[in-house]
Amino acid sequence: MTRDGTTAATVTSLDTLLPGASATVKALHLPPREATWLRAVGLREGTVVAVLRRAPFSGPLHLRLGERSELALARELATHVEVAP
Amino acid sequence: MTTPVVALVGRPNSGKSSLFNALTGAHAKVGNFPGVTVEVLEAELKAPGSEPLRCVDLPGVYTVEGEVDAESDEGHARRFLDELHRSGSPALIAQVVDSTQLALGLQLTVELRRRGLPLVLIATQHDALIAQGFELDADALSQALGVPVIATSVRDAALVERIQKVLVDALQLKATPPSTAIDVEATVRQVLRPREDAKTAFARARARSERLDAVLLHPVVGPVCFLGLMTALFAAVFFVAEPITALIDAANQALGARIEAALGPGLLSSLLVDGVLGGAGTVLAFLPQIVTLTVALELIDASGYLARGTFLVDRLLRVAGLGGRSFVPLLSAHACAVPAISSARIIRDPGQRLRTILVLPLMTCSARLPTYGLLISTFFASQSVWLRGGLFVALYFAGLGFGLVASLALGRTVEKTARPRPLVLEMPPYRLPRASVVGRVGLRTASRFVRDVGSVIVIAALVLWALLTVPGPMKGSPPPGASPRAVAMHNSLAASVGRALEPITRPAGFDWRLNVGLIGSFGARELMVGTLGVIFGIEDAADDAAPLAERLREARRADGTAAYSGATALALMAFFIIACQCMSTLAAVRRETRTWRWPAFLLVTTYAAAWLLAVAVYQASSALLS
Known about the structure:
The complex is a heterodimer of chains A (85) and B (626).
Chain A: E1 12-13, E2 22-28, H1 32-40, E3 48-54, E4 61-65, E5 69-73, H2 75-78, E6 81-84
Chain B: E1 5-10, H1 16-24, E2 29-30, E3 41-45, E4 53-57, H2 73-87, E5 91-98, H3 102-113, E6 119-124, H4 126-131, E7 134-136, H5 138-145, E8 149-151, H6 159-171, H7 184-191, E9 192-194, H8 198-216, H9 221-263, H10 267-302, H11 305-318, H12 327-332, H13 337-343, H14 350-359, H15 369-379, H16 385-413, E10 424-426, H17 435-469, H18 484-490, H19 493-505, H20 512-520, H21 527-535, H22 546-554, H23 566-578, H24 583-593, H25 597-625
Parallel strand pairs in B: 1-4, 1-5, 5-6, 6-8
Antiparallel strand pairs in B: 2-3, 3-4, 7-9
Helix pairs in contact in B: 3-7, 5-7, 9-10, 10-13, 10-17, 13-24, 14-16, 15-16, 15-22, 15-23, 16-23, 17-24, 19-20, 20-21, 23-25, 24-25
């Protein structure tokens, strides 16, 4: 979500996407250390992410990044990843 | 002149280890590099027409920039590269890139280009890329990056010589020309050429992986498969290793009998048989378990399943302040903590790895069970089967319970283990593991265990032998007709120490004889029953505990009252749950943490906690049972 909420209809956080949905990463609202780490594993601004599945009990998300790589990402981090369709 | 160094750098699962094996053959050793505490393998690389090179296999890394934990694999790799740069000796970075993950690999290339050392790119898994319907244009990539590029499949033996030649040539370069900005996405689009059958092949590969994931990550079927696999793993560690361990044991005993026959009874043959052979036997007995577990884990990791299993159980273990990768070590610690501690290497987060290692000794290992069995059958024989069974189960799970408590407590008190990082884990494609790599990992683990842990265990075994054999200052009063072994133990240093400890252990109900049992079982917990047997004049108590149980019930204090009761048994079992009563575990912790600090920490904290709990249990249950 953006802070003012005005673009809430189009911009949302990665953890709200349901399995099967995909979106483009717009921003990583994370401390530099975590953000660097996510970019290194391929989750960057501009990357197209598809949610393949969500582990139960608020477990991690199984994501596909772009065409060929897959990532498991803790839900607590996904809440800070801003995406748009 | 210093030998040129070729450093293999790459992301985890990039095929780096396979390539290292293919390039250097079987003679890798763990390199000794300043400030680097994770294992860095090193081997001589003999290329035709050149001086031998030192080829170094760095731990898998995602990034060498950004803020990385100094103790993580990334931190170590970065320090190594910094050191290499500073030394000014001839060096070359060979980056290993998985061609099916080219874009991600090139991110690391961009970072490595900024380091200024000569760089060569080796794109592995080219056959897998072709199977996905693409081809890598190595020349185009080389032009775009300004560094030599080789596309290979590790299964292709003829390429090894070519790679060696490129490495040797590239070493002549003083540095790779400064990097201009590289547009990773554009480069990937430019150099990956779709083949005729591109679409269908790629779709087929992905569909296969999706089908597997649909089962293995299914919310219900997935955990069932996971539990099944873990049960099989546990059974393998427990049962497959057992006959081999028994064989080693038998050989050890046969050798001991021959030594005794040759030298006759006496201090020297006792030193050789009980001290040296006993210690060496303890070391060897661990090997089948460690090799089985290591090989199984390597198979699970290399096949791509480890990441899936982590995905499934990560959430659950977060509750205890641990992560998904702690699962396998925690499970195998229920067989034995020693192989479990070495298996904790699969945990990448250094804080979580340390926390897991410190918690593992609390799990109920198989060596605790004979003592539990003896105490329950001795002091609770008149109780119902249900109560005895329930007590046994409670003891079993008490280890897990205390482990969870300890994990949470560690997170709050020991800074190095705090804050498990949220899960960020690459889900690698499913792959068939390579037998040669898996086999070498098993062999390497075995030889390193014997060398690093084995030496400590043998020294500790010799110290224990001396304690239990050499006469101490306090003269004992062995029962009439006691065997020479029993007499020696009653007069031993350990007996003196046990008596000296009585004031401390009395509130827990332990007299000097139980103290000697505890000292003797520091060599291995299963020795508790045998040691008590010798003290009470029962030979072979480990095989048939009934006579020992009788003696324990009949044991009297100086004033004629019963020496032990149900309360003593409960207190002793409480002590056994917590105390890190095992020299091999401490040696393994030292080996994995590379410092005596953590074994010392374990020893002090677990003994203090075990004593407190034993006293509390003894006092409470004496009051209740009387």
